[in-house]
Specification:
The structure holds three protein chains of three kinds. Chain A is of the alpha/beta class. Chain A is 51% helix and 11% strand. In chain A, the strands form three sheets. A six-stranded parallel β-sheet of chain A has the order 1-10-7-4-2-3, with helices on both faces. Chain A has a four-stranded mixed β-sheet with strand order 8-5-6-9, with helices on both faces. Chain A has a two-stranded antiparallel sheet with strand order 11-12. The longest helix of chain A has 19 residues. Chain B is of the alpha/beta class. Chain B folds into two domains: 118 residues; 122 residues, Rossmann fold, CATH 3.40.50. Chain B has 13 helices and eight strands. The radius of gyration of chain B is 18 Å and the shape is globular. Chain B starts with a strand and ends in a 16-residue tail after the last helix. The model of chain B has no long low-confidence stretch (mean pLDDT 96). Chain C has a single domain, classed as NagB/RpiA/CoA transferase-like (Rossmann fold, 3-Layer(aba) Sandwich), CATH 3.40.50. Chain C has a six-stranded parallel β-sheet, sandwiched between helices. In chain C, β10 and β11 form a beta hairpin. The model of chain C has no long low-confidence stretch (mean pLDDT 94). Classes of the chains: A alpha/beta, B alpha/beta, C alpha/beta. At the A-C interface, α4, α5, α9, α11 and α12 of A face α1, α5, β9 and β10 of C.
Chain lengths: 475, 257, 207
């Protein structure tokens, strides 16, 4: 993948021209969006739940250090080893060291966005370890060498036909002429291949949806059960989680779970929600013998001190992207980094810096659909606007558009001048276009005019006409 | 008793592109028993600057607008997005200003109303001047819908127009892809979004697509005319006021309908 | 050291007066149920998630009910893996079924667990790991069978956490599994397929 946030425009053009991707994206409104709508409609108190979820996340962040310390103490008491990593390099090192100490060769992974963020797979592979993504969507894109295009549906950009072609080329140990007529057969094949990996892996790595300070527990929320197999079968379980994942008690976790799945997939609960606490107990017949929890900062403590603090409330449901018209048009890869959609447009500049990422918060219509569905009420539009302000202060963006904005600002803050210029401009524009009713070609606004007309102005300004009439009697 | 003074915030797009909407709005405000005032010291609400990250210009325009309407009892805005800018965002722009300015802005925002809301909740109309025989569909422009809750008001007003039948889109609340500068800066994405909107609107088999925001309407009309689709676009105020003498948005003068 | 640096940065960021934590939220009224209504709600919610709910008059009847349910679903009566002592003592042979003790292995096709509780709110089973309930039973075999006492059907997740605290304090078992249906995925073409990694089918025996 050469796409980066800096090449957003080119990425978007490529995405718009990609018919296969467009076919895949067309399923979103009738899929995840419709499912969420139904799930929310089934709980009349959903707005109250959103407000409670927001409050839980806010107050937890207010006392974050204390909750993290409490989590560490409890998790340690329950037999887990807690590690801290300030950044991606540190996190990768911690995980590598655990794998090395255990003489591990094969690692299975449950879905984890932070592991994408810190580039964990590539690093472990460079150390000679075999890393297998076990979430079906992640498995598919890992084989393709792609990044996830959605935080909960990583292969949402692919069609069934894509997956069939991929499986035929990867699973060479299976008969070439085997029938793979439907998703069921593809799932069944992946199940067989991955089952073997689960049973022979030395280490299982998962993320965490939440960490519970009260009990030292990590929570994962899945539908496939791959996360559970990853954290049950291998002898070592490593949880990689960012520091914002902690909640004080089981009760807060439950309230957040109530909004998570409903917002994400429209399920009231996913098939599996698992509370994992420490390694196997003396009497247990299964489970890992070691449990490590890596608490990763990687920019979160800086965000806590910044104007982007509210974005730390995110519980990674993906609803903002499902409901985003821009995401629906171009998919996730065009955003060029780990987190796509509105939350990505806020997080990516926070984690990578606004230089080189300013397209992301800029490429929004500010329609507000994301905010309207966010289960923890992150003010995504305001946060994107704040990034636009930073970009404006730092002078990123094209000189032409800045110059035009300055010229316009000069006139707009001088009403008499503005109205004079408006009269001339509109008279000129009207004369050029009125007979046709619209402009189809102009030396400006070429982007718009490529696929759309610009309606003609009526030829005189309202201010001008109003002055000419007696108290607004229509012309 | 003297009629209340209702300041019309014209909006820059209506001022420049489609003054007939301004007259339609003025007529409706008069129907609601108000005297219409059009302050000359208004230009633009400031959204182009605000949404481009130019907070200083946005604030200057905010204060200019607030002061232009100082002697009005109401400020009525025939655009959901400009109304939201005035009502919701102006206070945020001056949140670090001295309390005198903050209260000046607060007094102002209390007077601001989006046109349809004004005509249903503040000075309710029981009949409207317009009449239109045909099927219309209504696009819920984003800011008005999500920041001001404009949803039922335009539909209740349209129900007062003799001859109008409302037929809803599958997704009337989905963005049209306009987004101001966005429509040009990310034209390809904007076009993809408006393409879906145009498909949805066309599939209603309405003959008129209405909305309360001229920006969205210009975007949708520009797409529909380019693609040669017959569906015409007008601001909802035009139908309510019966201001239908001008051709629909983006249509030739001979295309009057 | 990373730990102290991270905690230091967090403390520095949290200089403003922290907000008071809100009162612990309670379940929204529309999700609350008790007693028989909880059982009815659980049954409906579990069924809507594709789980098959079988009523069993008493523990002794369980093997026969299992045999019948498996036959009805055309699932072969293979060896059933389980490790719950009370379940193991039931008359399986009389029902024509065989059981094997232990955690699940790769060959197992059927496994039997006992749920500590169920949550009516969403039709969810709550299983806790331990010697009688190895976690693998719930994930490796193709068909998962779960026994639950009618008296253990709770209304809400708050009731479930209260039970966990009552039984374990703050020392939870290694794994508490909330299971709300068979394994599923929507990752291929957006269509839901069951049996992604875990069980394809889930039977609940309500005793």
């Amino acid at each position: 993948m050469t796409a980066s946030p800096a090449t957003f425009r080119e990425n978007a053009d490529a995405a718009l021209a990609n018919e296969r991707l467009q076919t895949a994206l067309a399923k979103l409104p009738g899929g995840l969006v419709a499912q969420r709508r139904a799930a929310v409609a089934a709980v009349p108190e959903f707005e109250t739940l959103r407000e409670e979820a927001r409050a839980i996340r806010d107050t937890t962040l207010d006392h974050l250090a204390a909750h993290l310390e409490a989590f560490e103490t409890k998790a340690t008491a329950m037999g887990s080893v807690v590690h801290w990593a300030a950044d991606a390099t540190g996190a990768r090192r911690v995980v590598t060291d655990i794998c090395r100490a255990a003489n591990a060769r094969r690692i299975v992974k449950g879905k984890s966005m932070v592991s994408e963020e810190i580039g964990l797979n590539a690093h472990l592979e460079a150390q000679g370890l075999e890393v297998i993504e076990s979430d079906l969507g992640e498995y598919i894109i890992q084989k393709r060498g792609e990044a996830p295009s959605h935080i909960i549906a990583p292969a949402i950009h692919l069609t069934e036909a894509d997956v069939e072609a991929d499986f035929r080329s990867y699973h060479m140990h299976l008969p070439a002429d085997r029938p793979l007529p439907n998703p069921e057969s593809l799932v069944s094949e992946a199940r067989g291949v991955l089952r073997e990996k689960f049973l022979t892996a030395d280490v299982g790595i998962t993320g965490a949806n939440f960490l519970v300070a009260e009990t030292g527990t990590s929570i994962i929320v899945t539908n496939e059960g791959n996360g559970d197999l990853s954290q049950t079968l291998p002898r070592i379980h490593i949880v990689v989680a960012t520091i914002d994942k902690v909640v004080p008690t089981l009760d807060e976790a439950m309230t957040l779970l109530r909004v998570l799945a409903r917002s994400a997939t429209g399920q009231d609960m996913t098939a599996y929600t698992t509370f994992a606490t420490g390694p196997r107990r003396a009497a247990d017949l299964d489970g890992p013998t070691e449990c490590h929890i890596v608490l990763v900062d990687n920019g979160r403590s800086d965000m806590l001190a910044s104007a982007m603090r509210d974005a730390l409330r995110c519980i990674r449901c993906g609803a903002c992207m499902n409901h985003c018209p821009v995401y629906n048009a171009i998919g996730g890869h065009a955003y060029g980094w780990v987190y796509p959609g509105p939350i990505g447009a806020v997080l990516t500049p926070a984690l990578l810096g606004i230089a080189g990422t300013s397209h992301l918060p800029s490429a929004s219509t500010f329609c507000g659909s994301c905010e309207a569905v966010c289960p923890v009420k992150i003010p995504l539009v305001s946060l994107m606007r704040t990034w636009r302000e930073r970009a404006h202060e730092q002078g990123t963006g094209s000189r032409t558009s800045r110059a035009l904005l300055s010229l316009w600002a000069y006139a707009a803050t001088r009403p008499a001048l503005y109205h004079l210029l408006a009269r001339f401009g509109v008279a000129f524009g009207g004369a050029l276009s009125r007979s046709k009713g619209r402009f189809s070609r102009l030396p400006i606004a070429r982007g718009w005019l490529r696929d759309r007309d610009i309606p003609a102005p009526q030829g005189r300004t309202f201010q001008q006409l109003w002055k000419e009439t007696e108290r607004g009697v229509p012309r | 008793m003297q009629a209340p003074r209702a300041g019309l915030f014209v909006t820059c797009l209506i001022d420049l592109m489609r003054p007939s909407v301004g007259f339609a709005a003025a007529r409706l405000i008069e129907e609601a028993g108000c005297k219409v005032i059009v302050p000359e010291r208004q230009t633009c609400c400031g959204q182009p600057a605000y949404n481009s990250g130019d907070r200083a210009t946005a604030k200057a325009l905010a204060l200019q607008t607030v002061r232009a309407f100082a002697d009005c009892d109401y400020v009525v805005v025939p655009s959901g997005s400009c109304a939201a800018m005035l009502k919701v965002h102006y206070p945020r722009l001056v949140s670090n200003e001295p309390s005198g300015i903050q209260s000046e802005v607060a007094d102002f925002t209390a007077k601001v109303h989006e046109l349809c809301t004004f005509l249903t909740s503040i000075r309710p109309l029981t009949k409207v001047p317009g009449r239109y025989t045909g099927r219309v569909t209504y696009h819920d422009a984003c800011s008005g819908l999500r920041e001001l809750g404009v949803k039922g008001a335009p539909r209740r007003l349209l129900a007062l127009v003799p001859g109008v039948e409302i037929t809803e889109m599958t997704e009337p609340e989905t963005c049209c892809g306009f987004g101001g500068v966005f429509a040009e800066k990310y034209a390809g994405i904007s076009n993809a979004i408006v393409t879906r909107k145009a498909d949805d609107a066309t599939s209603t088999s309405a003959d008129l697509l209405l909305a309360g925001d001229l920006g969205c309407l210009m975007n949708m009309a520009g797409k529909l005319t380019r693609d040669g689709r017959p569906l015409a676009c007008r601001h909802v105020a035009e139908v309510l006021a019966g201001e239908l003498a001008d051709p629909p948005i983006g249509h030739r003068p001979t295309d009057v309908r | 050291m990373s730990r102290d640096a991270i905690l230091g940065r967090i403390r520095a960021a949290n200089t403003t007066t922290p907000t008071t934590p809100p009162a612990t939220p309670s379940a929204p009224p529309s999700l609350v149920s008790h007693g028989d209504s909880a059982i009815a709600r659980f049954r409906a919610a579990a069924a809507s998630k594709g789980m098959i709910v079988v009523d069993v008059k008493g523990p002794q009847m369980l093997p026969a009910s299992v045999a019948e349910a498996l036959s009805a679903a055309r699932i072969a009566h293979g060896e059933i893996r389980l490790n719950d002592a009370a379940l193991a003592d039931l008359p399986w042979a009389e029902a024509g079924l065989t059981i094997a003790r232990g955690a699940a292995t790769r060959q197992d096709t059927l496994a039997f667990s006992r749920a500590l509780a169920a949550v009516a709110e969403t039709g969810t089973l709550m299983l806790t790991s331990g010697v009688g309930n190895p976690t693998t039973l719930a994930f490796l075999p193709e068909t998962h069978l779960v026994a639950i006492d009618r008296t253990s059907v709770l209304g809400t997740f708050e009731d479930a956490t209260a039970l966990l605290r009552q039984m374990y304090g703050t020392q939870l078992p290694r794994s508490v599994n909330f299971i709300s249906g068979a394994s599923r995925t929507g990752d291929i073409g957006g269509r839901i397929v069951h049996g992604a990694h875990g069980p394809r089918q889930l039977f609940i025996f309500l005793i």
